[in-house]
Amino acid sequence: MIALKKTPGRDFLILNLSDPQLGDGEWEAGHPNRKILEDCVGTLVARVHPDLITVSGDLAWAGNDRAYDALADFLDTFGIPWAPVWGNHDNQEGPEKVEAVVSRYLTHPLCVYERGPADLGNGNYVIRIEEDGRPVSALFMLDSHDRAPYVNEAGVESNEWAKLIPEQLAWYREQIAALEADGCRDSAIILHIPIYAYREAFAAAFRQDIDPKTVLPEDADGSACWNPGYESSFGVLWEGIGSYPADEGAFSVIRELGHTKHILAGHDHVDNFVISYEGVTFIYSLKAGPGCYWDPRLNGGTVLAVGENGVHSVRHEYVKAK
Ligand SMILES: [Fe+2]
């Protein structure tokens, strides 16, 4: 079990970075993409002073071993614990390749990571945030895998973005029971591929008569693009929601247990909405740096503030790309 200490009287701040995803060549000295990512993260750490850095997947491109090592070495320079989950790209060369990266990552003392049960994927683990020995919140770090088979209503088979599997949801349920037994009443989920309910949340919150691609981040905060009851939403949706196309049942378990109040995903690089829907805040993290594809207007990180009763606020910290 991983436990990190929250200082009484002050928030425990989590800085999430998503999809840094540079290739080996982009980590070469002087490469502009490396510089943009390093500037982005350096600016965020100096501005936020986080207690923990999380990375919500696509740390590099599968097989780009030098890139994984370069990212780990770079994150170590801040002297702050950091915790990754695996994205679809990280998983693309299979569990053995991930194991090889993980075994090197575990030589980095600031990398907090647990393998978790082998049948659930390449890293499912819980980070407890404790104040005076009491867990005030817990982070579920979940592996959302790579691809999964799907058959549509017409019987056509395809390979789609993956989903949490039933065994993970059963494990999640067990972990919640253990947390509650220890007096913990709040948790957040951090994963790469959004769960299906992101689609429900956006459909409920966003006005149908507006094209989401036309809304800028500065206009999505408190503007008229949200339906009544969802005015606290912010952020944009500039590409489709890349979840599994059918309901995997995750949200019904989350809702039933009533413990997790925040879910954070990466994966869709130019989506960064934050919507509170049926008691849970659905967060798309702001993407860090230019790796893979990006929009420089959506560069930065996402901050979760944990108080004595759990996570109480979410904000994006935009960084002007240099
Ligand atoms: Fe990605």
Concise overview:
With 322 residues, this protein is an alpha/beta fold. It is built from seven helices and 14 strands. The strands form three sheets. Strands 1-5-6-9-10-12-11 form a seven-stranded mixed β-sheet, with helices on one face.
Model description:
The protein is an alpha/beta fold and 322 residues long. The protein has a single domain (6-318), classed as Metallo-dependent phosphatases (Purple Acid Phosphatase, chain A, domain 2, 4-Layer Sandwich), CATH 3.60.21. It is built from 7 helices and 14 strands. The protein has helices at residues 32-48, 65-76, 88-91, 95-105, 166-181, 197-205, 250-257; strands at 2-5, 12-17, 52-56, 82-85, 125-131, 134-141, 147-151, 157-161, 187-190, 260-265, 274-277, 280-284, 300-307, 310-318. The strands form 3 sheets. The chain has a 7-stranded mixed beta sheet with strand order 1-5-6-9-10-12-11, with helices on one face. A 5-stranded mixed beta sheet has the order 4-3-2-13-14, with helices on one face. A two-stranded antiparallel sheet has the order 7-8. Strand 11 (274-277) and strand 12 form a beta hairpin. The longest helix has 17 residues, at 32-48. The chain starts with a strand and ends with a strand. The mean pLDDT is 97. Residues 19, 21, 58, 87, 89, 267, 269, 292 line the site of fe (ii) ion.
Low-pLDDT residue intervals, each spanning 5 or more residues: none
Distance between the termini: 39 Å
Q: Quickly give the structural class.
A: alpha/beta
The distinct ligands, each listed once, are: fe (ii) ion
| Fraction of residues in helix | 10-25%
Q: What kind of sheet is the major sheet?
A: 7 strands, mixed
CATH architecture designation? 4-Layer Sandwich
How large a portion of the residues is in β-strands, by DSSP E?
A: 15-25%
Our Rg estimate from Cα atoms comes to 18 Å
CATH superfamily: Metallo-dependent phosphatases
Name the overall outline: globular
CATH domain class: Alpha Beta
